[in-house]
Amino acid sequence: MAEGVTPTEPGGSELEPTRGNELESAHSKELAPYTPRPVHGHETKFRLSYAVLAGVGLAAIAAAVIFVLAGRPPKPPAWSSWKPSSGGDQALGQIANHIGPTYRLPTGEQLVAVDGGPAEVAGLPVKIVMERSSNDLSLAEGKSAMYSLCGLGKFCSIKVGKPSHARELLLQREALELALYSFRYVKDVQQVVVILPPPPKQKPSHAMFFSRGQVKGVLSRPLRFTLGTRPPSLAALKSGPARSFIERTTNNLLYDYDLAQAPDASVLLELKPFTLNGPSGTSPHTP
After folding, report:
1. HEC string of 209-269?
2. Which of 60, 97, 256, 257 is a Cys-bridge partner for 207, taking CB atoms 3.0 to 4.6 Å apart?
3. Residue 247 lies in a domain
4. What is the C-alpha separation between 232 and 240, in angstroms, rounded?
5. pTM of the full predicted structure?
6. pLDDT at 254 over 60
7. What's the pLDDT at 274?
8. Please, are residues 199 and 286 in contact by the beta-carbon 8 Å criterion?
């Protein structure tokens, strides 16, 4: 057999490689049409449920992010910069000790000493009787607090300086502040009585009576928006908004008072309203 001759199959044709048939077969498989898998009805419902839950989850996350970015709502302003550390009757004593030293005479001396607690006289409970007229008497209901403002003069009168309407207004402001603190921080107190110092050479006979309802509007606002951050001077009370506010708020809360023994051994504090003689100068009631 000669070299270089290509062997042939019977019939005389050459042996051809089969690569073309293989590629055609592979190509046919790659181009085979895609038939989607049928989806049952309940599977579709599950997919929709998952989509809804995912949407709710994303909404919750977005809301949380907005809340964090925006911050929490601001806290309401504090009613006062100071408050008693105890409650009940102890709080009343703390209120008296806190407010008393903040009221000063032009000399720098404290205006009056302040004693505070539940409504008692010599350890006996006090019942407050309001006398609107000789035929109209009513008994105050609920817990009462009582404060006494006492100067260094005879019968608790103010020893330093001269009686004036401005000084009278300063005492009325102090009484109002005592009442507001009591209502704010001793929740069961329904009324507050403040015994005022008498004019020189007279015995105490005047008081202020506050009920929670009477000062509801003032009590609802922070103290710095009503009374301010500190007591005014006597000069500031001769005219201006501070004087007008005190007169408007407290002038109708002034009373003559008297004490009487009740049959049950309690003390009756009888209050009868009186009107100041005028907006300026002095009167027999001016301390």
Report:
1. EEECHHHHHHHCCCHHHCCCCCCCCCHHHCCCHHHHHHHHHHHHHEEEEEEEECCCCCEEE
2. 257
3. yes
4. 11
5. 0.73
6. yes
7. 78
8. yes
- Specify the pairing of strand 113-118 against strand 206-211: unpaired
15, two tokens? 């042996």
212-219 own/partner pairs: CB under 8 Å, 24+ apart = 212/183, 214/253, 215/176, 215/179, 215/180, 215/183, 215/249, 218/176, 218/180, 218/249, 219/180, 219/183, 219/184
265 pLDDT tier (thresholds 50, 70, 90) = confident
**143, part of any domain:** yes
Which of 142, 280, 259 is closest to 210 using CA atoms?
Answer: 142
Question: Which two three-digit tokens encode residue 246?
Answer: 């005190």
With 0-12 / 13-18 / 19 or more C-beta atoms within 10 angstroms meaning exposed / middle / buried, residue 201 is: exposed
| Domain count within the chain | 1
Instruction: Note whether residue 80 is domain-resident.
Output: no
Average pLDDT, the chain: 82
H helices present in the chain, as ranges: 19-30, 41-70, 88-99, 165-185, 216-219, 241-250
